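#struct-pred

JT: dropping the chains for the assembly here, can someone run the whole complex?
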Amino acid sequence: METDLDQRDEHVETSLTPGHPCRQCPEGTYEKGTVTETLERGDTVVVVKDVPALVCDVCGNSLLAEEEVERLQRILEQAEAQSVELQSRRYQPLQEVGKNC
Ligand SMILES: [Zn+2]
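RK: done, full complex below.
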């Protein structure tokens, strides 16, 4: 296991369940949905659509599961390694989803 030292705590929730009370507003609860995440590192910007997340039904605040954050991080690292300036893609990878070592 490697640990990433990046600050990644803004949207991260490790145990996600629909119906969880919102952190941002007193009345909302999180429901399953998808969000569009914009990732930036250096000169690389990656826009990822259809990221599974929990979205507050009142204020729209979103939470991502840790595994989603890790996959987004990997997508961003790949784009940066290829010197991509701007990339827009769907969260679901084109290749088969399976074991990635
Ligand atoms: Zn809310």
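JT: nice. Residues 22, 24-25, 28, 56, 58-59, 61 surround zinc ion (CB under 6 Å). The mean pLDDT is 84.
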